[in-house]
Each structure stands twice: as structure tokens, then as C-alpha cells.
Design a protein that fits this description.
Elements: H1 25-35, H2 48-59
Helix pairs in contact: 1-2
Length: 60
């Protein structure tokens, strides 16, 4: 079943191995849409990530 799905769990800007950045839902959503989504996807987020997922879904 793993051939059908790919899990991407990006770090928020300024956290983990990501570059520094400002805390902005729309900026994060734009980066995810530009850099990670090249085909239809299911977006899941919790707390801050849920808002980013909502903004991302609205932009693609």
C-alpha cells in the first residue's frame, strides 16, 4: 500500500531543519502550495497547522 501514498511532514519556518521565518499562516500556506504540492493531495494539520492547511487548500 505504501506505493500509493507519500507522507510529507514539513517543519514550520524557524523550527526543525527549516530556515528562519516569520509566523504567518498565509506565507506558510504559499510555501507549501509552491514547494510541496504538485498534484491533488489530502491536507491534515493540527492547531497552527490546521489553519495553514485551510489556507493552502484555498490557494490551490
Amino acid at each position: 500500500m505504501t506505493e500509493r501514498w507519500t507522507l510529507l511532514a514539513p517543519d514550520r519556518l524557524g523550527h526543525g531543519k527549516s530556515q528562519d521565518g516569520v509566523r504567518d499562516f498565509e506565507v506558510d500556506a504559499g510555501l507549501i502550495a509552491e514547494q510541496l504540492l504538485d498534484e491533488p493531495a489530502h491536507l491534515v494539520g493540527l492547531s497552527y497547522g490546521a489553519i495553514v492547511a485551510m489556507f493552502t487548500a484555498a490557494t490551490v
